[in-house]
Amino acid sequence: MKRPVIGLNCKLTPEKSGDTYWKLDRCYPDAVAKAGGQPLVLPFVATPEEARAWLDRVDAVLFTGGPDIDPKRWGEEKHPNAELLLPEKDLSDFLYATEALARNAPVLGICLGSQLLNVALGGSLHQHIGDDHRNATHAVRIEASRLRDILGAAEPSVNSYHHQAVARVGAGLRVTARAPDDVVEALESEKHRFVIGVQWHPERIADRPEQLALFRVLVDQAR
Asked: What is the Cα gyration radius of the chain?
């Protein structure tokens, strides 16, 4: 059976030398491959036409983690603790997200990727919630939802590496999981066939069957 192609966006990282590199934690493509998919790193794009041409080559999209979205997208000034994406990366991510949502492609967003989906659908973010969720482990409360069906648990323990979180929820999305301090930990779309965003990093704990299941379902949706 042909393995579905899963497109992954990546980071754009400047170095002291003046060079700029594409960068992607190998845990993402490894999790996709382990789940039965064929990972494809998406190049940066600058126009909707380029985004459409590359998305024509994939069956689903995984939006990965990274720095912070420019808050001008929801009408705020930058918080002192925010570390913004490079403009080329910010533009490319939103072009891909807008087109993937418009074509109703299966989408999984992780950390920044979940925030990206929320902002692309008109939502906003808390720019700095403190450091309690950086390098932490905690439980999440998952309400009855597709996510809970996938994970098979109502209060799983997850990892945490973020300092921003969903504030206003984007159009068509609903919150399906929260941390003990009520920070939003997961979103699902009620108007797309498969759009889930999680604030934790399942790719880093994909040795756990319930976390790998997120990638397996994405691959199944892509078939």
From this structure: 16
pLDDT tens, residue by residue, 160-211? 999 999 999 999 999 999 999 999 999 999 999 999 999 999 999 999 999 9
Per the annotation, the verdict on 203 as an active-site residue is yes
Q: Are 36 and 87 in contact (CB under 8 A)?
A: no
| Domain range for 74 | 5-222
Q: For the whole model, what pTM was predicted?
A: 0.97
Q: What CATH number does residue 138 fall under?
A: 3.40.50.880
Is 111 among the residues known to form the active site?
yes
Token digits of residue 181 = 């301090």
Q: For residue 192, indicate whether it is catalytic.
A: no
Residue 17: what pLDDT? 87
Catalytic residue among 10, 99, 111, 133: 111
